[in-house]
Design a protein that fits this description.
This protein has 825 residues and is an alpha+beta fold. 36% of the residues lie in helices and 17% in strands. It has 25 helices and 27 strands. It has an 11-stranded mixed sheet. β15 and β16 form a beta hairpin. α20 packs across α22. The longest helix is centred in the first third of the chain and has 40 residues.
Length: 825
């Protein structure tokens, strides 16, 4: 049978239509996929948004919490500043801990982890080197020892329970933990001690860099030159007690002649590049100001006190403002207003209606590098006044998120941990207040209830914190200064350079007793001031030592401004806090103009339009560190260039043996530099320059070069350089959220050697002016805002007033939010 041939079934769609159909199906699949991605993004975004909203602090309502003895009322004003109204001090501490946790827990966590060397467990290997450097000091062990022996431990325990209650009552963990994909750990009483020890790290040296550099200078340079470089002061000094220091004589060419030094060892200062300018910024020396005026000079009977502590500026700010009220044992009602440190239960600086107190870092000598003398060839045994000892080894295990646990072997001596080896390969141990149980106590609580100047001074001398200048004013018009914090009792040496303590002729014998700590009470002229510079002289100075006092120019400007006032008001005090007059740089401005007009300089060059422009800008500089001034920036950078050029050949050999040696280790070097520029001794001139005028002319070129490269000289204002960079700790690692987390960048006036200390990342962490008993007339400023949560209405509230220097109230204002905390049962 013959089968018929089957015809092929004709195509329903021609080839072009099939391609279109495939494309349509593909687009449908893509569309569906994109839709699913978009849906997932919306869901994820919604989840993130919900977590963010739920992690905000509770501002209103009523909560029942375990750990309270009575109800506490928390009233917040428009700035987010709380008034905590409690029946007793313990409940006030609990409520403060609750608020700190709700608004600042991540900040508290970073503080305790940084002191303990435990950051890598949270953020990973990027923090490992930092953790290793801090584990050397074993501060968690110190904190545990302190807590075990601390009187009034109950307050720390109550505060910790308040912190954990605040953390638990958040609807979600603070947003930083969501970004880090981590969970916060509960607060413990020893964590509060770690927070105070974190301030030791911030305010005191952790490696003895200045002492080490001075030791190198004395080891490798003639003694006369070493004494010049490490002079204890300059004519800029303005101590409360004593006079300014004269600059030592310049040693002659028979002692030291730069021209005879090895040519290869001299690092010329003949140019200043961008890297140098960056290093100068890194060497910016922050500071703090405080001053007090007796009631006899004010418009009322109370004394006036001003304080602005200058620290690194971050988001959130280091301080948290608060006003605490509670009932005392005699039914008296206490109210203390000021700044608190998140992680601690005490008002750090403020006023209680009877006395007000403010701080500046004292810069006294709080540590020593001890040369360890080996007693055998193994390097494991060393000499002590009590005979030979073996080095102890402590194993520190450092958790690293996402990596294996790191192990650090810490060797310790009877004086402290072995820190390093010096330029002659000698082991050195570090003796530091922060290693001792005497470093932290709760003595500051007594300041909150002091009613007289003497009671406040006594409280200050019993308190253990990083040692501070403490200025106190009382409501009767009296004022006083003393040191708050431990002061080592040295014997056999002055602590300026590393030395061996092996034979027992040198060392520490504990700490000064409260009655031995220097005081100045009711000065006849009615004025006191501190600004991180030397405060006293003579025997008092020998007792407290020199830990690297800053140049006295800022203190002198404050002192002179105070003596120019006959009747002082709070407005006068605020104006002085914002004083950006360039008193210190005025002589440098005159020198720069002389150099620009120098016949030698003009004859050596063709007419230079840029120099002509520079001269006009310097002449019209305005004599202030204002944001619009180009002239101020030129003078500032010229002074930096000259300082580097003058010091470079003098420090060349010390830098060969200790490369980390820096100019800022010699904080009084202004006296050396100016003396040499003024007297121009040929034997102190870098041989790369034909004359001192040639050096100065080269520094002009160095100053101009990076500015001209950046654009038109007339646009290189001080504000361009002094623009704030106030950032959240996570914004650098997560740039996508930096604009959301950071404060807006803004040019601000001020500099380091004037009352308004201001740099891109340093400045006034708070300002206040207050008269005890008349707190309603006082002012307060704080950068950033009360809350650390970017969705809070208080995240940036107050920052603009801090930038502008606008007067805002010291006391909390009208109540905007009320939260009541009640005992659970």
């Amino acid at each position: 049978m013959v089968r018929p041939k089957l015809r092929s079934t004709p195509d329903v769609f021609p080839p072009r239509d099939r391609r279109r159909a495939r494309r349509r199906r593909a687009w449908r699949i893509v569309g569906l996929s994109l839709g699913l991605v978009a849906l997932a993004f919306v869901v994820a975004a919604g989840w993130v948004a919900l977590r963010l909203v739920r992690s905000r602090a509770i501002l209103d309502g009523e909560l029942r919490l375990d750990g309270l003895r009575a109800a506490v009322r928390v009233e917040r004003d428009a700035w987010g500043v709380p008034t905590i109204d409690a029946e007793n001090r313990d409940d006030a501490a609990f409520a403060l801990g609750f608020l700190h946790a709700q608004e600042r827990f991540f900040q508290m966590d970073l503080l305790r982890r940084s002191a303990a060397g435990e950051l890598a467990a949270l953020v990973g290997g990027a923090a490992l080197d930092f953790d290793r450097s801090l584990r050397l000091h074993r501060l968690r062990n110190v904190a545990e020892r302190i807590v075990a022996t601390l009187p009034r431990f109950e307050l720390l325990d109550t505060y910790a329970r308040g912190v954990n209650a605040g953390l638990d009552r958040l609807g979600a963990a603070p947003f930083e933990y969501m970004l880090l994909r981590s969970e916060p750990q509960p607060w413990k009483p020893e964590d509060t001690i770690l927070v105070v020890l974190a301030m030791y790290m911030d305010l005191q040296p952790t490696s003895g860099a200045i002492e080490s550099s001075w030791g190198v200078v004395y080891d490798v340079l003639p003694r006369e030159l070493a004494q010049l470089l490490t002079a204890p002061g300059t004519p800029w000094d303005a101590p409360i007690v004593g006079a300014a220091e004269a600059v030592p004589s310049v040693p002659g060419p028979d002692v030291f002649d730069v021209r005879r030094q090895a040519q290869g060892a001299t690092t010329t200062g003949s140019h200043v590049d961008d890297a140098f300018l960056a290093r100068i910024d890194a060497d910016f020396t922050p500071g703090s100001n405080s001053w007090a005026v007796a009631g006899s000079l004010t418009v009322g009977t109370s004394a006036l006190l001003a304080g602005d502590m200058h620290l690194s500026l971050n988001v959130p700010n280091i301080w948290y403002r608060a006003s605490l009220t509670w009932e005392g044992p005699g039914a008296e009602r206490w109210r203390v207003t000021g700044v608190t440190l998140p992680g601690t239960p005490i008002v750090v600086s403020g006023s209680n209606g009877f006395v007000a107190w403010a701080f500046t870092n004292s810069m006294i000598d709080v540590s020593d590098l001890v040369i360890v003398e080996p007693s055998d060839d193994t390097g494991r045994r060393y000499r002590t006044p009590d005979g030979e000892r073996a080095l102890e080894t402590h194993i520190e295990r450092i958790e690293v998120r996402g990596a294996a646990t790191d192990t650090l072997h810490v060797e310790t001596t009877v004086w402290g941990p072995v820190l390093d080896r010096d330029h002659t390969d000698r082991q050195r141990a570090y003796r530091w207040i922060a290693h001792d149980v005497e470093s932290v106590n709760l003595g500051l609580l007594d300041m909150e209830t002091a009613t007289t100047l003497e009671e406040a001074l006594d409280a200050a001398n019993r308190t253990s914190i990083p040692t501070q200048n403490c200025l106190i004013a009382d409501r009767t018009g009296r004022i006083g200064w003393t040191l708050m914090g431990p002061v080592p009792r040295r014997f056999g040496f002055d602590g300026r350079v590393p030395q061996s303590w092996a034979d027992g002729s040198r060392g520490w014998r504990g700490y000064l007793e409260p009655h031995e700590v220097p005081r100045v009470v009711d000065p006849p002229d009615g004025r006191l001031w501190t600004a991180n510079a030397r405060v006293v002289d003579g025997d008092a100075l020998r007792r407290v030592g020199d830990g690297g006092y800053v140049l006295g120019a800022r203190a002198q400007q404050i002192r002179d401004a105070l003596f120019a006032l006959e009747r002082v008001t709070p407005d006068d005090m605020l104006r002085l806090q914002l004083d950006d007059r360039a008193v210190f740089l005025s002589r440098w401005q005159r020198l720069l103009l002389d150099v620009l007009r120098s016949p030698e300089g003009e004859s050596a060059r063709e007419p230079d339009a840029t120099r002509v422009e520079m001269r006009g800008l310097v002449e019209s500089w305005g004599a202030r560190a204002s944001v619009q001034s180009v002239g101020y920036r030129l003078v500032h950078d010229f002074r930096d260039a000259v300082s580097e050029a003058v010091l470079a050949p003098l420090l060349a050999h010390p830098r060969e043996v200790q490369p980390r040696l820096r100019n800022w280790h010699f904080r009084q070097c202004e006296g050396v530099v100016w003396t040499l520029v003024e007297t121009q001794p040929p034997h102190m001139l870098d041989p790369r320059f034909a004359s001192w005028d040639a050096l100065l002319q080269a520094c002009v070129d160095s100053t101009l070069a990076p500015l001209v490269r950046a654009g038109a000289l007339r646009e290189r204002t001080w504000g361009e350089r002094n623009t704030t960079r106030i950032r959240h700790p996570l914004s650098g690692a997560l740039p996508v959220v930096s604009r959301w987390l950071d404060m807006a960048r803004r040019p601000l006036p001020g500099d380091s050697n004037m009352p308004r200390v201001q740099g891109p990342t340093h400045g006034a962490s708070q300002r206040f002016v207050v008269a005890p008993g008349r707190e309603e007339e006082g002012f307060a400023h704080m950068p950033c805002g009360q809350s650390g949560h970017p969705l809070s209405p208080f995240y940036r509230k107050g920052h603009r007033a801090w930038e502008e220097g606008e007067p805002t109230s010291f006391l909390p204002g009208e109540t905007q939010h009320t939260l009541t905390l009640r005992p659970e049962s």
